[in-house]
Amino acid sequence: MTDRFQTELQLSKQSLAIIQQKKSLLIFPIAHVVINLLLLATVLAPLITLEKTAWEIGKISEKSYFIFFMIVLLYFAVTNLITLIFNAALSFCAIQHIQNKPYTIGGGLKTALSRVATLYCWKVLMVTFGAYVRFSEYWLDDWPTSSTATNVLCGVRWRIAVLFIVPVLIIENLGPWNAVKRSAQLLKNTWGTSLIYRARANMIVFIISLIALLPFFIGLFVGHETAITLGTSVSAVLLIIITVFHSATQIILVSALYLFANGVDASRYYDTALLKEAFRSMGKK
User: Fold this and answer.
1) How far apart are CA 43 and CA 23, in angstroms?
2) Which tens digits make up the pLDDT trace of 33-64?
3) Domain count, the chain
4) Is residue 273 part of a domain?
5) Measuring CA to CA, which residue among 5, 14, 9 is closest to residue 272?
6) Residue 246 near residue 240, CB atoms below 8 Å
7) 197 - beta bridge partners?
8) Which residues contact 106 (CB under 8 A, 6 or more apart)?
9) pTM surpassing 0.85?
10) 227 lies in a domain?
11) From CA 108, how far away is CA 103, in angstroms rounded?
12) What is the C-alpha separation between 138 and 158, in angstroms, rounded?
């Protein structure tokens, strides 16, 4: 096990310790998963009807295709915003908790809802300007010297530069554009440029998720309707649990790193040395 992997693992454990201490924080990831699943179930009904109609008449009309497209588009727009709102609420509560400041779950959600317009604008900025930046980073050789890369992103790649965007939006009350610059500046000032976030622990989550699919595959192998239903249900529950805990630990960890970058003492819950090692330069092994 490498030192980098140990750093990731220990930081994740320390984030989980916060969840164990304040289990009510799980309300946020559970809520957005449940709401999104309910919305999915609601959306599937008209989509199935459209698909059934298309099969019956042998083709799909332009109007039906447009309705199908708009339903799917609206679903993703709404679910992404809901996820962002609950993530922002969790980030606010985590930041208060790490600083040992009073807070309530309802207060965290209220704070996030008060910034819903800004959060929505951030989503729009991410899928427009963010897509342009990611494309430019990959295709343009002179991108690192461009004014956007140096003045807005402070020499930090987009994926890393916006890591603190939710804490900045929810705590510092900045607009999306200024929040991007603020997030990038915090990362540059604390860890430098050309950074890589230590995300190797995500591989463990992926492997665990594959293991969680075993009941489903066992049900398929058995072939009985009851076995398939039971296996699918067990795998679905396990995947939801994995998603909830992984999402919560990642948001709490990012909140802790944000505080660390602002010079706030987080040593009550995190090893400061590990927070310093949370990022590495692309040139370092």
Assistant:
1) 31
2) 999 999 988 888 777 777 776 666 666 667 77
3) 1
4) yes
5) 14
6) no
7) 279
8) none
9) yes
10) yes
11) 7
12) 11
